[in-house]
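Every protein is a chain of amino acids, and every chain bends into a shape of its own. Below is the pair of lines this work produces for a single protein:
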Amino acid sequence: MNASREVERAGEPPSDSTLLDAPEHVLSTLENDGSRRWLYPRLAKGALWQRRRALAWFLIVFFIVLPHLRMNGRPFVLLDIASRKFVFFGHTFLPTDTFLLTLLVIGILVTVVLATALAGRVWCGWACPQTVYMEFLFRPIDRLFEGTGGKGGKPKRKTAGLMGGVRFAIYFVLCLLLAHTFLAYFVGTDQLAVWIRSSPLEHPTAFLVMGGTTALMLFDFLFFREQMCLIACPYGRFQSVMLDRQSLIVAYDPKRGEPRQKGKRTEGDTAGNCVDCNQCVVVCPTGIDIRNGLQLECINCTQCIDACNRVMDRVGTPRGLIRYSSQDSLDGKPPKLLRARTVAYPALLLVVGLAFIGVLATKYAFDARLTRGRGNPFQQITPGIITNNFQIRLTNRTETPHTYTIEVMEPADARLGRSSSETVHLQGNETMLVPVLVNVPVSRLGPRGQTAGRLKVRDDIGNEREVTMRLLGPRT
């Protein structure tokens, strides 16, 4: 290192074989030599941690229970990709509902962006499954085996041999449960129960998906851990475009804390409130120092706030050296709730929400879409009568079977052809392509050989839909 500096001072570039020591950690989970730095955060059981724990266990229970809940005879949430059917809060969405699904996705994205603009990375620290399961399910298990239960910090004993095997077995069972729950969101609990009771050879694809999901969870929570937030998740990198200087973040107040000095403060002491105890660092689950300012690794878990408040109580200084704040507030500027982001995002969310409700309100119990049939669009079989060839794609959007009738409304003297089906029976969620022939007198077509018409489709419980059509014939 000294030799390389001497070469640089002489104005010569260092040789390719000269390696410079890293001045600091490139990542909080990497040592200077590039090896893995394992994090063992201590616990700061303050008021915020208590709230996060209550919310975390509620979310864990909610995640497990949700696929078992029913509304209108259907699951609350079902993402049946194989059947191209999605159910949200008892409402079924089919591939024909592309606009509705687009509005739903846009609404979710705008909600996330709005929440970030207002409250920073509140999702990451309080509700993200990675944080919830890592901090409130798997780390407590680690601490139990490492002899640091309820406190955290560096392990007091190694989890190798038999202890390591038992720990892995517990991880495996928990990940297996989570993987099955995850799979239930895509196939439904009824189908999942059938697969669990049957041989994997009868459903190899589902078994491989479940096995792969379990393996990925084991890799994540057993090895990858906080690196999911630091390396894989793009949210931290997107926060620079979602936050502004008024957004709420977990922040250290340098004006109040600097210069740092260990120990209690005495009257006339010019040192800041920070006693340089390093507690905010040792409790951080991503291994950063919040005193270095806003960082993409910060997930707003508030452990540093609880730890710092506890230290402030001990040394007799006010709480809030580390607190929820904003960059402008730290600079002494007043908060502004009404700003471009907080006006534009809610307005966009309102528009998307109203559009979603409006489209949802016009949904029918069944879909009927009329298209031209294959072959000639029309033909003349009976003198004076033109037959038009159509097909109706009927979709039963309900879970129960229904019977549908088809009739011609306009023109008044038009009739269904003999080979057309006036009644159609569909099972729940079934789709059928129904051929329809419409006979119309030539006199109805006019000199241009066409006229407008209407078909009505009615189910056996009174729902009905009308579709328009264009009847064609020879020009006169």
